[in-house]
Amino acid sequence: MNAEEWAQVEELYLEACGLEPEELGPFLARLDEGLRGEVESLLEADRLSGGFLEEPPGLLAADLLDRAPDQLVAGDLVDGYRVEALVTVGEMGEVYRAYDVERDAAAGLKVLRRHLLVDPFAEARFEREARAAQALAHRNLVKVYELGESPVGLYLAMEWVDGVTFRELLDGGVASFGEAVEWAKQAAEGVAAAHAEGVIHRDIKPENIMLRCDGVVKILDFGLAKRTGQRSVDPEGWGASGTISGTLSGTLPYMSPEVLWGEAATSASDVFSLASVMYELFTGKHPFAGETPLDVFEAIEGKTPSTPSSLRPELPLELDGLLLRMLERTPSSRPSAAEVAASLIAISTKSSAH
Prior knowledge:
Layout: H1 3-17, H2 21-29, H3 33-48, H4 57-65, E1 77-78, E2 81-89, E3 93-100, E4 105-112, H5 120-134, E5 144-150, E6 153-159, E7 163-165, H6 166-171, H7 177-196, E8 199-200, E9 209-212, E10 217-219, E11 226-227, H8 257-260, H9 267-283, H10 293-302, H11 308-311, H12 317-326, H13 337-353
Antiparallel strand pairs: 1-2, 2-3, 3-4, 4-6, 5-6, 7-9, 8-11, 9-10
Helix pairs in contact: 1-3, 1-4, 7-9, 7-13, 12-13
């Protein structure tokens, strides 16, 4: 992040510090994903350091911003993993392609960002991701090998997925119906497998789903995951979403209405998010597209999406019905992820017969 971008984050952070609790959620929801993540990280660190505004906010911001993470470089060793290249930097972690010395194979390495090492909430969330992911074993879910701690801090080692994200697929144009239905089916099967083990993902979006080079779809990044039955309100004032009270978990265009309304996410929330991804995959358009984040927010709350076949006439009517049921505003009206996968198989079979 360059100086201009850091200045923008600092300005937004200072503005957030001056808001009332009930104003903070809508304010953050209007930011794009990257900015929101950085501002939330500063707010989290501020709260854990003793509360808002105990020091002048400008000094707090400068201190926190100075602790931007130092990236690892090719050749660095993290326990038994040799770093090869940085892949991406997210809100919580830096993801690297690495070489697993013991397995003699490529691996993914997610390292907790260094400015969060003093943040017990961030460490707990990082460890929660590991526990949630390690409990899962399914071909459509990325496999986590281990959670470890090294001189660089906490890290997750996981299988390396050689392929492209659904975001890259969407940016490349509309897929054929046959490809889209197969990819959507696999994604639904992965989500269903997580739900069967009591794990809710809470951040299903195109960036967190990959198509491997051999055609296998993988659900990634369980950083916001929680187990069914976990307390809806965490200790020390953390809200149901798993972020600070008044903020939202997930990514705005793929959030369900109930999460926007401040309710705890459920498996039905994942289904709604998956529906938004699938709608894009089949039509090339987002069901709740808007010019601004506020437009998107309002569309999710109150807009009825167009039927997919009205945007792409060759799509079967059965798909219209499935996607619109998945996008129902009442969570109990949505099918389960397992039912979604079964419906996609039936739709694919019927289409092939014709």
